[in-house]
Amino acid sequence: MSTRTLISPAVLARPRGRALYWSVFTAVVLLFALAFLFPVYWMVTGAMKSPDEIARTPPTLVPAHWHLGGYTDAWDLMQLPEHLWNTVVQAAGAWACQLVFCTAAAYALSKLRPAFGKVILGGILATLMVPAQALVVPKYLTVADLGLLNDPVAIWLPAVANAFNLYLLKRFFDQLPRDVLEAAEIDGAGKLRTLWSIVLPMSRPVLGVVSIFALVAVWQDFLWPLMVFSDTDKQPISVALVQLSQNIQLTVLIAAMVIASIPMVALFLVFQRHIIAGISAGSTKG
After folding, report:
1. Alpha-carbon Rg of the chain, whole angstroms?
2. Measured CA distances, 267 to 91, 161, 162, 215, 254 (Å)
3. How many CA atoms within 13 Å lie on the side-chain side of 79?
4. 159-187 pLDDT tens trace
5. pLDDT per residue as tens digits for the range 210-244
6. SS3 state at 176
């Protein structure tokens, strides 16, 4: 059975049809690349312009004079090393807690088949229908009662209850070959040993995807850290950029935003193969 496409193979076989196809394809790719990369270029080069040039109308595409001082000023004046370290601690702790508890819960719902497992899963997925803003006040009151304000644990604990990542892990575990798990059980492996030695090594793609989701969610969060951390020295980079932006030149603020976005961009570039593999693995049955 042949696959139907927009352009028939007969048209692609002709030189004129092939040239037209590749011309349209190249134009579409360049257009999408420009749409996604131009804001990044504008932000990076905006930090290298002078304060007068950044406010000029019409704007300039290329800086008239390249100034790298905006990045050094942002690094020193806005205390970026301290706030970046705060963000790393908060994101790493939330990632570790979420990975441990969500993986254990997903494995239990998928392979251990507890009583009322479907009801429990349905209740967990129902929380996705609740707006995140509606949960802010109950979470804040709980954290305040526990005395966890200005403590990274206040970021870690709410991050554990992530219904989407739990469901993503469960769906992946459902697709793992049951023959492999039964063979491990015959060899005498217990449930925990099967999870550690069999399930987790086979689940590296989806674990990579969940890790990216967990890290990005904490890194870009603003409202919850703003409520939890009243101490300026303990605030993450997302909150510090707003709190310290008073009386700061626009070019310095843009440079700080560029520096704050570098870790997540680098993380994606390094692990993009694992992310794509995890997404594609979730759509195919193992």
Report:
1. 25
2. 13, 23, 21, 10, 21
3. 17
4. 888 899 999 899 888 888 888 888 888 88
5. 888 899 899 989 999 999 998 888 999 999 888 88
6. coil
For the chain, the residue count is: 286
Report pLDDT digits (tens) over 111-124.
888 888 889 989 98
Dihedral of CA atoms 255, 85, 97, 265 in degrees, nearest 10, equals: 30
Is 0.85 topped by the overall pTM? no
Look up tokens 């990044």; give the residue.
40
Give whole-number Cα distances, 165 to 120, 141, 228, in Å.
15, 25, 24
Rounded-to-integer distance, Cα 136 and Cα 180, Å:
43
Q: Write phi, then psi, for 204 (nearest 5 degrees).
A: -60, -40
* Identity of residue 72: T
Residues 6+ apart with CB under 8 A from 238: 87, 219, 220, 221, 222, 225, 260
Q: Tokens 């919850």 map to which residue? A: 224
pLDDT of residue 30: 93
